[in-house]
Amino acid sequence: MLRKAKFALAWMMVCSLAMPLSACAQHDSLLIGPGDLVQVDVMDTPEMEQQVRVTDDGTVPLAYIGIVKVAGDTPSEAAAVIQALLIKKGIMVRPQVTVRVQEYATQDVSILGQVRNPGTYPITTPQSILKVLSLAGGLTGVADRHITIRRSDGGDEISYYVANDPKEAMSDIAMVHPGDTVMVPRAPMIYIMGDVSRPGGYAIATNDSHISVLQAIAMAGSANKTSVLSHVRLIRSTPDGPVELRVHLNEIQKGKQPDITLQANDILYVPFSWTKNFVMSSSSIAASTAGAAVYVIH
Question: What is the pTM of this model?
Fold first, then answer.
């Protein structure tokens, strides 16, 4: 502990000699807003320590200085403004000012889309995206893991991938600020219909967002013994309309033909045995997916 304390003291001394303290202390880009509680400190001048709340018009009343506009600035930018005013008013010659946001005004973060409890949730400080998603009950089984964070100030949209692997998900965490909106879209779907154990729609929620024919058939509980594996049909949507491809599932299972990667909205139809078989057109198969049960691919 003593060694750590000495290191911290040395670092503070380096900062104070090399640059203004405000530059050492402030690194974030979160802007100060109305209602925030800010702490203003001047190095070696404890009598100038002040804790004030930002008014609705974005200003703070500071002793010795007066009214100062800080809303829309980062803490380091606000510190530079206060520092300049102290010099301009002849109060101090070389002040070193720090500004810290002690408490952000409570604002709602909106969490929309494929979460268990979509809605608005109050937060007062920036929170990790994983914590914010937990406020809404987490992702649903059909959620796309590529989510978007839209900043409240109309700035950039931030994309974040919620990986299945916890280490990967925690390695580059995104922060959600008060007032932001989190959008969680629906994952792409594929459909496995016909003579399989669990025909229906499957959300592709794997880490790489890919799934092959063999993986899809396995997720559907495998093809039934009465199915015709040599006449499996793959119906795929294209800009020019649906196209139908013949899939020799029996040959793929034997390794004689390469596995096929499925695309979003693909329909894999496994026909019934010749004795039970009845002719279905591509349009009929596609229409049958509307009422299909939906499962999740983990």
Answer: 0.64
